[in-house]
Amino acid sequence: MDIMRSKSVERLSFSLTVATFFTSTSWTLYGLQLNDYYIMVPNTPGIFTSLIRFVLFWWFGAVIPNKPSYKLIQI
After folding, report:
1. What value does the CA radius of gyration of the chain take, rounded to a whole number of Å?
2. Are the CB atoms for 43 and 24 separated by under 8 Å?
3. Kindly report the CA angle at 13 between 37 and 69, in degrees rounded to 5?
4. Is 55 helix (H, G, I), strand (E, B) or coil?
5. Is the pTM of this model over 0.85?
């Protein structure tokens, strides 16, 4: 809801969204291949939430914000 109010996707991680989508999709397809609901059911919501996050990235702006929200470690 905070993303909808602020109309900013700064708090979402695009790389985490992509990784969640591919991981959930691969496990769900594996569960379909084995016809195993114990694998399919827990991973299906990950696909849907990732798709919702992709829509939020598309709707509210750039994938990469202007500046990172973290400090780089100085070595």
Report:
1. 16
2. yes
3. 155
4. helix
5. no
Tell me, what's the pLDDT at 22? Answer: 97
| Residue pLDDT, tens place only, 24-75 | 999 999 999 999 999 999 999 999 999 999 988 888 875 455 555 666 677 7
All structural domains of the chain with their residue ranges: 2-60
Mapped onto helix, strand or coil, the DSSP state of residue 44 is: helix
Report the largest interatomic distance among the alpha carbons of the chain, rounded to a whole angstrom.
50
Q: Flag whether pLDDT at 4 surpasses 80.
A: no
Q: What SS3 class is residue 51? A: helix
The residue whose two tokens read 């900013």 is 8
Sign of the torsion formed by the C-alpha atoms of 64, 70, 74 and 75: negative
